[in-house]
Amino acid sequence: MKELKKLNSAQIRRMYLDFFVQHGHTEMPSRSLVPVNDPTLLWINSGVATMKNYFDGKVVPDNPRMTSSQKSIRTNDIENVGKTARHHTMFEMMGNFSVGDYFKKEAITWAWELLTSDEWFGFDPERLYITYYPKDNDAHQFWLDAGVKEDHLLADQDNFWDIGQGPSGPDTEVFYDRGQEMNNLPEDDPESYPGGENERYLEIWNIVFSQFNHTPEDTYEPLPNKNIDTGMGLERVVSIFENAKTNFETDLFMPLIKQVEGFSADKQYGQNAADDVQFKIIADHIRSITFAIGDGALPSNVGRGYVIRRLLRRSVVAGKKLGIDEPFLAKMVPTVGEIMKDYYPDVLENADYIASVISSEEDRFSATLNGGLSLLNSVIDEAKQTDGKQIDGKTAFKLYDTYGFPVELTREYAADEGLTVDEQGFEAAMTEQQNRARNARDMDNGMGVQSDLWTNFTDESKYVGYTDLVVDNAKVIGLAADGKQADQAEPGQHVDVIFDQTPFYAEMGGQVADTGQVIDNYGKVVATVKDVQHAPHQQNLHTLELTAPIKKGARYKLVVDRARHLKIEKNHTATHLLDQALRNVLGGHTQQAGSLVEAHYLRFDFNHFGQVTKEDLKKVEDMVNEQIWKEIPVTTVETDIDSAKKMGAIALFSDKYGDKVRVVKIGDFNTEFCGGDHVKNTNEIGLFKIVSEGGVGAGVRRIEAVTSSDAFAFMQERVDSLDHIAADLKVAQVKEVAHRVSELQDQLKEATKQNEALQAKLAAQQAGDVFNQAEETAKGTLIAAEVKVAGMDQLRQMADDWRQKDYSDVLVLATAAGDKANLLVAVKDGLAKTVKAGDLIKAIAPAINGGGGGRPTLAQAGGKNPAGISEALKLASQFMND
């Protein structure tokens, strides 16, 4: 057998990418794990997920041949991580892609060359097996032509790639034979074949031939452009080169596992199967947590944040099983960075920030974990008092889901106390939660149905709006009416038009599209421009509302709504100032998470861990206004991307940039990549005012702000409101308002204090009368009475006095206030086993049209029928005598 090359993970990744670059592919960067403008995905979960717009025809790439090694997260089976050889939450998917360019023959020929050529991977051909779709005779023949032996080709009905509407088609899979010594099954087992459930034949590459459109009608139509989409898991290929039994014994994971060994007092990897699972969980999860936080996601209770929190908590619990009681995950971030620095240097650059987020979450979970122990002890005490001797499934799941307790841990604690756990109830609650999670994530992996309406339209269209907002002689070079190419369109039709030149900005980078008018040679308005988007080849595509017919080839005057455009310019430049001010005040870790630049306001979303204080917000606002009033020139330059980076230009929000980029520079304060419209000098903005700031998601904050006349109007409204308040408070000057309000607050506090004292005195007086009226019942002595107090707080105070003086076995109090009624039931500790306060409150609360509950010794209820109080007190007496 041919000997394997000695390659590490970084070398393998680079070799794969270099191979396809040499075959005419453009190397695409690994995109953020947080999807950009794609609400259908919770995480980027494959290489092709970053290229949807290319594959469904919305955008035509500069080069139809692309290759990438894309970091990805999949969380559908978190529970399996560590228990299998190759299950991960984060992995890298290497791939090569063709959008309407090469197809099966080239994809297969190059795949075999990469795999077997001594210049590249150099695998032994005898170790490689290929599966293909039975009806795909072309793929079968191309593999034979490439040099694969017939007995290494297997037809498999499952080799058809289909994830819903959009591109689909047959695929072919490559398996590497690791030898029977790596197998977990006997050689003659029915599953011991390439494609079976075994450890011998390892799938390393899936090559998809997208040649059909899966339509909404559930039919399969030929694609206008056939595509290639492949995926090779880096972790799997590394395990082959490093002859590792699982993915975890490779250079991608072993440094992390070794570090965990150092944290544990006496646990070593490879000595105990149960411990090994915990080592693997931690090594896998810390990679996902580190990269996710580095890409702007933060721990929370929803969406991506919940995934991070869940992974972190599973890691902490895994650490406890290894005897690690101190916070340790934050210390592993630099190790992740060192392992991945060849391709992901940003992890080490942001290591301090990532570690600080993890450290904060670890500390918070330690407190939560202790709270879980308290709940578990309480549940065990309560279960001991019942005949069932069992912890119910919902409680066990709450301990797992809320506090991070694995059911195994709950089972161990319960067994020590002679109790069991309702396993079926736990599984039912787990299944319900998993179903909710599935519905919440990856709602639709499918791409849009591919359309070629504008895909093949390559005529050039020039945007001149940076300098001109009016074009006198624009020619219609492309016209579509009601979704079809046309030579003429009429009013009432949905019309899209491309002109040879245009002053109308197409929506991009958060800046909304321009609006305006289309005018004929006679000065008549023939259309209103309602929207402008980019066609697949990046021409500005205008959506028109016609008032007269419009013809292809005809020439028209195009006029942008100048007043609206200038407002948008002001807000766009202010957005750049705001972005920089946030970095300066809050720290360089802040990243843009989205923006919207409208005519009358701007919205800016950014990643930030924690609250933004009023003081910091004021610093940001003051800093922006300072730049405006400095009257700084705003300059733009078009250059290549490397030169732009040397200028220190910031790339916003994972935008995709071509060979030439536009850089907007605001003096020495801010330099950014940007294709939008801007003022010539910051003084044109006039004034900047933050209207609101708050959280909109896991670790994402949002600022809304206004500029120029909108900022003045906003502040004038506040001044008018303050003038009205001053008049109402009868103060001579606005500056006296704060002092007068402070005086009124002090007076209110004093009045509230006096009122509470009077209420307490009234409650004490009534208690003296009520507590002397105990009734003998079959279940013990009962005091049941209506009192006139302010509400539930006073009822609880009376119950405290009653409990201290031991006036009766059971107390039932009621009070009415307007259209509301309150009931309280208190039971002596010694009687709570036979008379439960919660049962009694449920029996009497319907009389006041209410409901309630509580502990065995204290319960309360509220309702909207005060007239039913006397009936409730009668029911209490009946309950005690039944």
Description:
With 882 residues, the chain is an alpha+beta fold. It has five domains: 9-252, BirA Bifunctional Protein, domain 2 (2-Layer Sandwich); 259-440, no CATH class; 462-560, Elongation Factor Tu (Ef-tu), domain 3 (Beta Barrel), CATH 2.40.30; 565-717, 2-Layer Sandwich (Threonyl-tRNA Synthetase, Chain A, domain 2), CATH 3.30.980.10; 770-881, Diaminopimelate Epimerase, Chain A, domain 1. The chain is built from 22 helices and 35 strands. A hairpin with a 2-residue loop joins strand 13 (470-481) and strand 14 (484-485). Helix 6 packs across helix 7, helix 12 (393-401) crosses helix 14 (423-440) and helix 21 (837-844) packs across helix 22 (869-881). The longest helix has 34 residues, at 351-384. The chain is globular. The N and C termini lie far apart (87 Å). The relative contact order is 0.06.
Task: Describe the structure concisely.
This protein has 22 helices and 35 strands. The chain is of the alpha+beta class and 882 residues long. Mean pLDDT is 88; it is low at 440-449.
Features:
Elongation Factor Tu (Ef-tu), domain 3; alpha+beta; 35 strands; 5 domains; 9-stranded mixed β-sheet; 6-stranded antiparallel β-barrel; BirA Bifunctional Protein, domain 2; 882 residues; 22 helices
List the helices and strands and how they pair.
Elements: H1 9-22, E1 26-27, H2 52-55, E2 65-73, E3 90-99, H3 104-116, E4 128-132, H4 137-146, E5 153-155, E6 160-161, E7 166-177, E8 201-214, E9 220-233, H5 234-241, H6 254-263, H7 273-294, H8 303-321, H9 333-340, H10 346-349, H11 351-384, E10 390-391, H12 393-401, H13 407-416, E11 420-421, H14 423-440, E12 462-463, E13 470-481, E14 484-485, E15 488-489, E16 495-499, E17 501-502, E18 516-519, E19 525-534, E20 540-546, E21 550-551, E22 555-560, H15 562-586, E23 591-597, E24 602-607, H16 614-629, E25 634-640, H17 641-646, E26 660-666, E27 670-673, E28 688-697, E29 700-707, H18 708-729, H19 737-770, E30 775-777, E31 780-786, H20 792-805, E32 810-817, E33 820-827, H21 837-844, E34 851-855, E35 858-863, H22 869-881
Parallel strand pairs: 1-2, 4-5, 10-11, 12-17, 31-32
Antiparallel strand pairs: 2-3, 3-9, 4-7, 6-7, 7-8, 8-9, 13-14, 13-16, 13-22, 15-21, 16-20, 18-19, 18-22, 19-20, 23-24, 24-29, 25-26, 26-27, 28-29, 30-31, 32-33, 33-35, 34-35
Helix pairs in contact: 3-4, 6-7, 7-8, 7-11, 8-11, 12-14, 15-16, 19-20, 21-22
